[in-house]
Give the backbone structure.
Amino acid sequence: MNGPSLSDLLRRLNGETSSNPPPDAWSNPQPDITRMDIRDIPKCGRFTAEERKAEYRRRGMSPSGVIDGVYNDTYLPPGEGYNDANRDWDADA
């Protein structure tokens, strides 16, 4: 079968040309958790609870100030206070 590939058709539907590279999100679908703002990690929805928990432990910080179910002011991002809405319940953080 001759003709455009499925990826070419999808690019055309999105208003792209073959000389126009796909957006960065397509070429790098998994963001680097170690470079993300701590508040954005649970919001992005791309990491498992275990990955998020490990990153909170590594940084010694979580969006809510809770790590492994334990609250500590030093676990909060600068200028933030505890807010239950910021809890990452699946990651126990």
